[in-house]
């Protein structure tokens, strides 16, 4: 793959992740607990982990988080998203390297650790450890949304050819 093709793929994936984030932000879905979202942008990240370099996927994730935070968020939402996104990315990359783990396991771990990262950032931001009372609900949400994203990602991965990005 040429450098310009690689840049083009990264740009398209970043735009797709941003579109998913925006659609999710405007959908009137409420789970009753602050911070719970479907995580549609993670479809791009989880799928990308299996077709692109770790560096490219990290840049896609980071660029999406920064642009969405700057365009539609605020300092706190940017802090939460960055913390959750980076922790989630580190966990998913680490677990993906263990060949015995499925896409579902990687995705669920990403969902859970994204929520843990956001909760840790919130506890730090408000200087209150009691915010961790949300942890059980956020862990369950991370598992459920991670499963949904993982199932869809598996289907996408089965459709794409192994050399799709070559």
From TrEMBL:
Pfam families: Hpre_diP_synt_I (PF07456)
Keywords, sorted A to Z: Membrane, Transmembrane, Transmembrane helix
Gene3D superfamilies associated with the record: 1.10.1760.20
InterPro entries reported in the protein's UniProt record: Hpre_diP_synt_I, Hpre_diP_synth_I
Ranges that cross the membrane: 6-23, 35-53, 65-91, 103-125, 131-152
Protein name: Heptaprenyl diphosphate synthase
Source organism of the structure: Dorea formicigenerans
């Amino acid at each position: 793959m040429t450098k310009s093709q690689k840049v083009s793929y990264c740009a398209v994936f970043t735009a797709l992740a941003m579109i998913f984030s925006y659609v999710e932000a405007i959908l009137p879905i409420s789970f009753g607990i602050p911070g719970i979202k479907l995580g549609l942008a993670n479809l791009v990240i989880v799928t990308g982990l299996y077709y692109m370099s770790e560096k490219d996927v990290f840049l896609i994730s980071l660029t999406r988080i920064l642009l969405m935070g700057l365009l539609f968020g605020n300092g706190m939402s940017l802090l939460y998203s960055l913390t959750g996104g980076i922790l989630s990315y580190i966990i998913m990359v680490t677990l993906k390297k263990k060949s015995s783990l499925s896409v579902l396991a990687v995705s669920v771990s990403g969902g859970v650790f994204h929520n843990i990262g956001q909760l840790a950032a919130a506890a730090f931001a408000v200087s209150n450890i009691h915010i961790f009372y949300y942890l059980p609900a956020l862990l369950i949400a991370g598992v459920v949304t991670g499963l949904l994203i993982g199932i869809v990602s598996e289907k996408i991965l089965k459709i794409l050819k192994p050399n799709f990005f070559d």
